Amino acid sequence: MKKLLLLFVVVAGATQFASAQLIPSFSFGVKGGVNLSSLSFSDPDFSSGNRAGYLGGIYARVGGLGFNFQPELYITGKNVNIETEVEGVTAVNKVKFTSIDVPLLLGGKIGAFGLGGRFLTGPLVSFKINDDQSTGQALGRAVTLSDVKNQNFAWQFGAGLDIKKVSLDVRYELGLTKQGYSFEGGEGKTRINLFNVSLSYQIY
């Protein structure tokens, strides 16, 4: 009797696991979180200070055989400080810009019984809505972004944890589009990189 009960538990667990991994599924939900943006400079005279931003929007997930495709649509607020020191005075340019971001992610999932881990990666296209720059000390001598392009591309890498209908995601976003910046005496190119943490809730 004990052997039959044990066999039943094993079969039930295997069935649940196989169902979670093999049967095609669709889900839809909302998500929100925070991010930290940074700029990569090859010139050691310039540095990028992190400032918290936000993201909020929706996602969909289509999966089967342990893999899934996850398109997302959300609004992102990105904030960063560009700093340089001139004659003992730190010049700071506070950059803020808002965009609509569309990641198209491929990933895999392991787990069962409403608990699982995910990994994902894929391209992201970002459409700028607006931007603002305010220069602090040493006005006119700080580094300024020439103009954040209206359409930018990036690549996301991340992992997530699912608990029932709630998911926690941690991602790194590598900027692919080069942005121009200018300073007294020259110009250069930089990329916008981003780290974000988000929570999502499955509605359907």
From TrEMBL:
<feature type="domain" description="Outer membrane protein beta-barrel">
    <location>
        <begin position="21"/>
        <end position="178"/>
    </location>
</feature>
<keyword id="KW-0732">Signal</keyword>
<dbReference type="InterPro" id="IPR025665">
    <property type="entry name" value="Beta-barrel_OMP_2"/>
</dbReference>
<protein>
    <submittedName>
        <fullName>PorT family protein</fullName>
    </submittedName>
</protein>
<dbReference type="Pfam" id="PF13568">
    <property type="entry name" value="OMP_b-brl_2"/>
</dbReference>
<feature type="signal peptide">
    <location>
        <begin position="1"/>
        <end position="20"/>
    </location>
</feature>
